[in-house]
């Protein structure tokens, strides 16, 4: 079986499962690694979740469940920035980003880690029109 056939097989299996488990389910325990579509964390088996919005790590899935981040970001990657994109595209330093968030000039949506200290932050374009004033590099 080729890799493409393997992926197609997994996808059709997942779609079938979704009919009886509409909330989604943990990734298969097949040793296969995937990346979270939001924070790009490497996930496999029960450290990842799949539903019709795609493959997510448990932290991002939890943030979606509690409404900390909108579901629309799963299908529209152009609707938000990650911190590293503000740094790379707008040349705003991480420390300046923190200050701007504290002062309310930037609005961040925090994705709290389910386990461990790391958390991921995103910036919705529609909540951060101030960025339109920044030159892109
Ligand atoms: Zn994630």
Name the average pLDDT: 94
Overall tally of domains: 1
Helix content: 25-40%
By secondary-structure content and strand pairing, the structural class works out as alpha+beta
Shape call = elongated
Bound molecules: zinc ion
Distance between the termini: 44 Å
Q: Mind telling me the C-alpha Rg?
A: 17 Å
User: In this structure, how is the largest beta sheet organized?
Assistant: 3 strands, antiparallel
**Helix and strand run:** HEEEEEHHEHHEE
Which regions have little confidence, pLDDT < 50, spanning 5+ residues? Answer: none
Strand order of the largest sheet: 1-4-5
Number of beta-strand segments: 8
Task: Give me some keywords for this one.
137 residues, alpha+beta, three-stranded antiparallel sheet, 5 helices, 34% helix, elongated, binds zinc ion
Please provide a written account of the structure.
This protein is elongated. It has 137 residues and is of the alpha+beta class. A hairpin with an 8-residue loop joins strand 7 and strand 8 (120-124). It is 34% helix and 18% strand. It has one domain (3-133). The strands form 3 sheets. It has a 3-stranded antiparallel β-sheet with strand order 1-4-5. A 3-stranded antiparallel β-sheet has the order 6-8-7. A two-stranded antiparallel ribbon has the order 2-3. Bound molecules: zinc ion (ZN). Zinc ion binds at residues 36, 38-39, 41, 56-57, 59-60.
């Amino acid at each position: 079986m080729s890799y493409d056939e393997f992926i197609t097989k997994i996808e059709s299996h997942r779609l079938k499962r979704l009919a009886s488990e509409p909330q989604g389910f943990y990734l298969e325990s097949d040793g296969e690694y995937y990346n979270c579509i939001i924070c790009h964390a490497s996930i496999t088996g029960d450290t990842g979740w799949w539903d019709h919005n795609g493959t997510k790590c448990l932290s991002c899935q939890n943030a979606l469940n509690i409404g900390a981040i909108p579901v629309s970001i799963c299908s529209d990657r152009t609707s938000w920035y990650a911190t590293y994109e503000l740094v790379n595209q707008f040349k705003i330093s991480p420390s300046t980003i923190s200050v701007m968030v504290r002062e309310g000039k930037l609005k961040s949506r925090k994705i709290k880690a389910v386990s461990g200290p790391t958390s991921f932050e995103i910036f919705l374009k529609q909540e951060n029109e101030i960025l339109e004033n920044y030159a892109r590099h």
